[in-house]
Every structure is written in C-alpha cells, then in structure tokens.
Write a structure and sequence with these properties.
CATH topology of the largest domain: Pseudouridine synthase
Number of domains: 3
CATH superfamily of the largest domain: Pseudouridine synthase
Structural class: alpha+beta
Largest sheet: 9 strands, mixed
Number of strands: 16
Radius of gyration: 23 Å
CATH class of the largest domain: Alpha Beta
Order of helices and strands: EHEEEHEEEHEEHEEHEHEEEE
Shape: elongated
Helix content: 10-25%
Length: 302
C-alpha cells in the first residue's frame, strides 16, 4: 500500500498517536508524518504510506498555514493554553489596529527562540524533558520566515489570526513574543493547521472516515491523487519498457523539460514509480525508485 493521506488531526492526540492509529487501520507498518502538530492543535497532518515514505525528504522545508486565537494578558510556560501561567493575569483591551500593527513587526525573516516545551534537543535531550523537570532550557534562536500574518478580528484580549510561515516556525513563540513586546504577556489559546505544502484542509480526512473506508474495503479514494504530489516537478508517463529500466535503477532518456532538474515518472495515470534527476540533456537517472520492475517480455533496447 503506497500513497499520501491527509489526516485532520483531532485535539488531544500527538502526531505519533496518529501514525500508530493509521498503522492499525491500514495494516501497514511503513507510515510516517510530514511535520509534527502539537497535541492541542488540530488540522492538516499529511501521512506518507508504504514506498512513498521515501518522498518525505522533499517535504522537510514545506511552508505551513495556520489559523488560531492568541490570548493576551498573561504568558505560560508552554506558550499555549496547556501550560501554567508565568506572569500575573492582567486585564487587557486591545484594538484590531493595535494588534495588526504588532503583527506587521513579525512579518519577514526573523530570529525566533523555540518554546522550552518543544522537541528541540539540547545535548541530545528533548527540551520538553528538561522543562518538565523545571531545569534550565538554554535554546538558541533560529532564523525563520513569517510570510503572511493577518489579524481577522480582536475582541478585548483575544485576537483571531491567520499566518503563513516557513518550516520550523513555532506559532506558540509568535504569540509569546507578541505578548512580551506589548508588555502584557500572551499565549496561544488555540491552533488549527489549514495548509502544509500542497496539502489543504479540503484534502483532510477524519480518522473515523479512514476507519469506515477500511471496513468497506474502499480505501483508494482516501489517498491524494499522486499526480497532485510535488507540483514543482514536471510529470511524465512512460511505456512498459522504459518503466522496467527505471524500476531497476537504470538511466533513461525522457522528454526535455527545459531546466527541470527532477521529474515525476508515472507508469500509468495513478502509479508514481520514480523521481528522476537530470544527468545531462534528456538523460535522467531514477534516484528514488518507488515501484518494483515488471517482467519484460521483450528486450530489444539498444
């Protein structure tokens, strides 16, 4: 079983919990996720299944889109609503203009310090393990990019937002830093991921839907159509003989795709068999092979 399925992650589950549930539902061990979501967060969690786990390397830097609510008035140790308050609560009334202006100051390339309760490692130990023991968590700031930061509405001390960010950006840290900049403290009250790379919330399935599809033996439609994957790479469909050479890792000549370095190679409308890299001219090498080779009945290739 090979494919990518987008789960609408419910609150309360870790990303690894979702991996384990999907393994049981699909009866497939080779499953991974493309980008962790905090347990309290919901929304888009793309899952790679079977041979397509090999595509994960192309999604490491995919941008994300989130919607959520920031609560101003006090900060927490986790930078979200799950944590303990670290500042005394204050009555705060903010205007939308005020929060919009604040949000603008975070747009662009910025340095951001991850939350103490995060999976970032300090000398091999996840930061959250140190934070739980009330130990010092000396995390360094990292460069990230906030590409869009829109404030949809502000009601007293709550701001509803939408943000588009680079991979590695912590929205919890954005909320925390906004509160620090205002001097009143803030934390992330709720978060929903609505996009990750080419995957959107419209593609997402609830775990219950996956369960029902498995029980009905109708799982083909739960997967994203492979032609939609990695839209930055051109796609080509090859004949049986060329497919056989590709599946054994041999270089082949493919149509000229101008300056494209990599192409998606299909054996049929839905079967993605390889990601091939240009060697020179129209010669491509299938560096990532996703399918096994069929038996050839003829071998007249020169």
């Amino acid at each position: 079983m090979n494919g990518i399925v987008v789960i609408d992650k419910p609150a309360g589950l870790t990303s690894h919990d979702v991996v384990n549930r999907l393994r049981r539902l699909l009866n497939e061990r080779s499953i991974g996720h493309l980008g962790t979501l905090d347990p309290a967060a919901t929304g888009v969690l793309p899952m790679v299944v079977g041979n397509l786990t090999r595509l994960a390397q192309f999604y490491i830097k995919m941008e994300k889109i989130y919607e959520g609510v920031i609560r101003f008035g006090f900060a927490t140790d986790t930078y979200d609503a799950e944590g303990e308050a670290t500042t005394a609560p204050r009555d705060v009334t903010l205007s939308r203009d005020q929060v919009c202006e604040l949000a603008k100051s975070f747009v662009g390339a910025i340095e951001q310090t991850p939350p103490p309760f995060s999976a970032k490692k300090i000398q091999g130990v996840p930061a959250y393990k140190l934070a739980r023991k009330k130990q010092d968590v000396p995390l360094k700031s990292v460069p990230v990019e906030v590409k869009e930061f829109e404030i949809a509405n502000v009601e007293k001390d709550h701001a509803i937002f939408r943000v588009r960010v680079s991979s590695g950006t912590y929205v919890r840290s954005l909320a925390h830093d906004m509160g620090a900049k205002l001097g009143c403290g803030a934390h992330l009250e709720s978060l929903r991921r609505t996009g990750a790379g080419e995957f959107t919330i419209a593609d997402a399935r609830m775990l219950e839907e996956i369960d029902a599809a498995c029980k009905a033996a109708d799982i083909d439609n739960i997967f994203i159509h492979p032609r939609k994957l990695l839209p930055e790479f051109p796609a080509v469909t090859v004949n049986a003989e060329t497919a056989a050479y590709i599946c054994t890792g041999r270089p082949v000549n493919l149509p000229d795709f101008s300056s494209a370095r990599k192409v998606k190679v299909f054996r049929s409308q839905r079967e993605l068999i390889a990601i091939a890299t240009r060697v020179a001219g129209t010669l491509f090498h299938p560096g990532i092979v996703l399918a096994s080779a069929p038996t050839l009945h003829t071998s007249n290739r020169s």
